[in-house]
Amino acid sequence: MKGIFFTFFFAAFSTCFSQVFICKDGNTKFTSEAPLELIKAQSNKTVGALDCGNKNVAFSVNIDSFDGFNSGLQKEHFQENYMETMKYANATFKGKIIEDIDFTKNGTYTVRAKGTFNIHGTEKEKIIKTKITIKDKEMMVESSFEVPLEDHNIKIPKVVNQKIASIIIVDVKATLKPKA
User: What is the topology classification, in CATH, of domain 2-178?
Assistant: First the structure.
C-alpha cells in the first residue's frame, strides 16, 4: 500500500523545478477524553510528502497501525465497530499550504494547510494549522487538530457514549527528508 501511495504522490507532486520531501515513519496520536474514560493510541507509520514548489502536501496513516489502547478488546472494537478498517483502511489529508514560506531557509514557520481530510470513507474540507521547522535540509512538521466523529459518520453506540469522546484530538509529528 505504501508503494502505491508514494508512486501516486510523487507523480502528482514532482516537477523538475521543485524539491519533494518525504516521510515514511511519522507519528500520529489520537486522544479521546470522555467523562468515563481516556483513550490514547498512536502509530509510527504515517507516510507523507511535501512539494516545496507548489506547496502541495499529503499524509496517510493506516488505521490498523494504531497501538496503545487500554485493552486488546478496546483496539478490536475501535478497528471493527467504529473505524471499520476492513472497508476504510486509511486516514488521509491532501492539500496545499496557504502561506508563502521559504523552504531554503532554516527557521520555524506557522502555516495553514487547506485540503481534504478523509477518514472512515468521509471527506471533509479542513484547514489545519501546522508548525514547520526547517533545519539543515530536513523539515519537522507538527500539527494538532480536532476530528468530530459526527463529521465522518463514525457512530458510537449509546451504551458507550460516556466512554468515547465525540471529538477526537489528533496530533501529527513527522520529519521529512529530501526525496533521493
Answer: Lipocalin (2.40.128)
